[in-house]
Amino acid sequence: xxxxxRQKPLVETIEKHLQGNPISFHxxxxxNGLLLPEKDRNHFLQSDLTELAGLDDLHDPREAIxxxxxxxxxxxxxxxxxxxxxxxxxxxIAAIMATCSPGDVVLVxxxxxxxxxxxxxxxRAIPILxxxxxDADGRIALGVSLEAMKETLKAYPYAKSCILxxxxxxxxxxxxxxxIEELHKYDVTCIIDEAHGPHFSIGSPFPTSTINLGAxxxxxxxxxxxxxxxxxxxxxxxxSRVNEQKIKGYxxxxxxxxxxxxxxxxxxxxxxxLATITQEDIRSNINTIENFIGELEKVHPxxxxxxxxxxxxxxxxxxxxxxxxxxxxxxxxGIYTELADSNYVLMILPLLKNHLSFPYTAAIQxxxxxxxxxxxxxxxxRMFAGINERISHFTALSLSFExxxxxxxxxxxxxxxxxxxxxxxxTPYPPGIPLLIPGEKISKTAIEQxxxxxxxxxxxxxxxxxxxxxxxxxx
Length: 475
Ligand SMILES: Cc1ncc(COP(=O)(O)O)c(C=O)c1O
Fold this sequence. Notes:
Elements: H1 9-19, E1 23-25, H2 38-41, H3 64-76, E2 80-84, H4 87-99, E3 105-109, H5 114-122, E4 126-130, H6 146-155, E5 161-165, H7 176-185, E6 189-193, E7 217-220, H8 222-225, E8 233-237, H9 244-254, H10 261-275, H11 279-299, E9 303-307, E10 313-318, H12 323-331, E11 335-337, E12 339-340, E13 345-348, H13 360-371, E14 394-396, H14 401-405, E15 409-413, H15 444-455, E16 470-474
Parallel strand pairs: 1-11, 3-4, 3-5, 5-6, 6-7
Antiparallel strand pairs: 2-8, 4-14, 7-8, 9-10, 10-13, 12-13, 15-16
Residues 87-89, 92, 113, 115, 165, 169, 193, 195, 221, 233, 431-432 line the site of pyridoxal-5'-phosphate.
């Protein structure tokens, strides 16, 4: 069949989205360009250059990029900070590959981002998955506990490195300084996936960055919380435990040889934006957020707002509706949120400076419109069951990467998959945290969670067999 090449499906879909005058409560942190000066918003194509004289080379910086990276290093007070043009994804993978050799044991938080598990696989290391704590309702995964880390280290005192997520996607922190201290007692290199915390360097009322809590490598998705373009991230080396040349080598290997100048320029912009935030900016931003939360709380008696440890992240719950349903209601009025899960919707608020404005008033008006037809119901507590079972503080995979490569797969119904070994990574996106990991035994809880997600049409990347409630396992 002859295709119509006048069509530009992606261009047209983006245009349509923008015509709806959307309000962004999601990444990237520049909020549809609102946090960039007007003159810079539409100039990205013009800054899409290449390694011309004076424009330097990301993989061997000596001029403008070096200066920009030096300023980044200075701002965060690190030993060496790098620009990344392929997200924290490449930062995580490079950090793991530079600190682990094949066969090394790597401790990893069970609810890590998929790039962490991919990095461990590429490094041919052996992951030990540490279970996380849950909030009081067992519905939001938090960080790992010191107790879990101590137990894991007792079992694997020879672990080479550990990679933890701090803060969580939902904006929760945990006493990570004690965990880092414990890891260092065993000489374990501590990599922190701080993708969601590049703004923590501002200080109170934001949590403390692990750069200041003794971590060895810290990775930041600048694009998530700062006004940087998507894929713009930072990698920071923060201790002499780390071999700088190895990191540099892997970054050069894993990133494009034609790094995007618009992304790099936006990283430079984001660093400067962060460095010039004043106490007055912070105070007024926090006041604006407090007012916004106060107004949201008045919209509907069933709309509940939960605060997190990061003032820029708030969680919305609507009694009687799933998070997916609430997200759809908000989208019907052009309010786009970061993610929905069975119970909640996550909103990412802007890191606003005093002279900038954000359509908070419109957001409240639209939330009113979105929820005005929602009847006031008795509380049904129609929430997805929390996680109550804890089998152990940590688990190892049931098969090594080599064993997995030589094994055949089969498809089984999800209901009958308990105890089978998953051969696929099944990752709801966002948040990009795998529910099933290749080589891991499938638990009853994972089956329940996955069934619920499928029934609620959550976005699960690339697994069409899941529509039929089937999964692939090893024979
Ligand atoms: C905790 C965490 N780490 C790493 C990543 C990957 O970051 P990026 O999108 O910058 O590649 C994400 C993305 O959502 C994330 O949530």
